[in-house]
Amino acid sequence: MSIVTRGFRGRRDSAPDLPPGQYLTRDFPVLSAGPTPRIKQDDWQFTITNEAGDKHTWTWRDLLALPSEQPTVDIHCVTKWSKLQTSWQGVSLDTFFEAVDTGADYAVVRSYGGYTTNLPVEDLVDGKAWLVYRYEGDDLHPEHGGPVRLLVPHLYFWKSAKWVKGLELSDDEQPGFWETLGYHNYGDPWREQRYSGD
């Protein structure tokens, strides 16, 4: 008689420094709410619209001319996988906000393909968020959000919108795609804020 059930693969990797309910993965799962947009680098633009309606726009060439950083961060998906020590290259959101006159408290992130998510502005500044265009030394592939995605590693990864094209700043919070479908408005993995009411 076997003491191991057929098909049992053992426990998933876990680590004491993971948020509650998460397991460690070494691959990079691809999860998307719809088809993958294919945006050419030369066609990509990023626009921040402040609460007064003023717009500031950067092209791909503008992005590459800005000072870049290479954050190495842990990322945590609401579907319970975590990937540690991921390496990126991109531009801090602080750099973009230097050009924007705003006192807004909230942002709606907009992506090519129609995806949206919402964040407090305070979670996008002070070295907490980047627009990234390289992952592990290579250009960011479309399935992972290329040419450019938002990276907000201290929140669940659905807040790090793929194919990012802009931020709309507001004094009022407006839920994004997953938030209107029952996901938590904030999404702190250390507090397991997966769904509304968590």
Unreliable stretches covering 5 or more consecutive residues: 1-14
| Structure classification | mainly beta
Q: Name the CATH class.
A: Alpha Beta
CATH architecture: Alpha-Beta Complex
Helix count equals: 3
Helix content range? under 10%
| Residue fraction in strands | 25-35%
What is the total domain count?
Answer: 1
How would the global form be characterised? globular
H/E order of the elements? EEEHEEHEEEEEEH
Report the biggest beta sheet as strand number plus sense, adding barrel if it closes.
Answer: 6 strands, mixed
Say which CATH homologous superfamily is assigned. Answer: Oxidoreductase, molybdopterin-binding domain
CATH domain fold name: Sulfite Oxidase, Chain A, domain 2
Rg, please? 18 Å
| Number of strand elements | 11
Region (Disordered): 1-21
Domain Oxidoreductase molybdopterin-binding: 34-178
Protein name: Molybdopterin binding domain-containing oxidoreductase
Organism: Kibdelosporangium persicum
